[in-house]
Amino acid sequence: KQEVTQIPAALSVPEGENLVLNCSFTDSAIYNLQWFRQDPGKGLTSLLLIQSSQREQTSGRLNASLDKSSGRSTLYIAASQPGDSATYLCAVPNSGGSNYKLTFGKGTLLTVNP
Amino acid sequence: GAVVSQHPSRVICKSGTSVKIECRSLDFQATTMFWYRQFPKKSLMLMATSNEGSKATYEQGVEKDKFLINHASLTLSTLTVTSAHPEDSSFYICSAKTLTDTQYFGPGTRLTVL
User: A59 CB near a chain B CB, below 8 Å?
Assistant: First the structure.
């Protein structure tokens, strides 16, 4: 059974700092890996999706890397802003096609202080 | 990007009543939708997979007679919490999967059972 762990559980940084969020998964035979953002009381917004054949994906100030063999992914946020404050979740699917299901980590609660 | 809506966003009901939550994909057809439950400061737990035109597939430990799922069209899935009790109070989130296995999430429904 796939297990996803995110470290740290919470992180507080001053504005402008670069930071890294970590995600690890126990079964390295993943189809892809996705990073989401969740604001309090809201749904999820997809940030980045990395296919299993890719090493990283970038979107603006966000960069996600994937190391399948070691079962790890990182989300790098450059020049953090107070608006980045949210919970960041990573998730991996068990397989593709009709059996596609996502397993989520518990998330990292990020607070960026102005 | 694709949009998924949920209705209602918030509902308060008395113990013993039933509550229906709708999940709609607004600009794409989704043969598969997923229902998740999220407790405070916890990650999303998959409850069931909803396939258009067929019976939903429930995760282990989820009572199918209590959480009725109907996916009658390619853009609508409903979750009905029957005979709700206070322990059913939670944040329910749906997602809809595209043909490329990308999941788009709804904004969530906060259910409070008194």
Answer: no
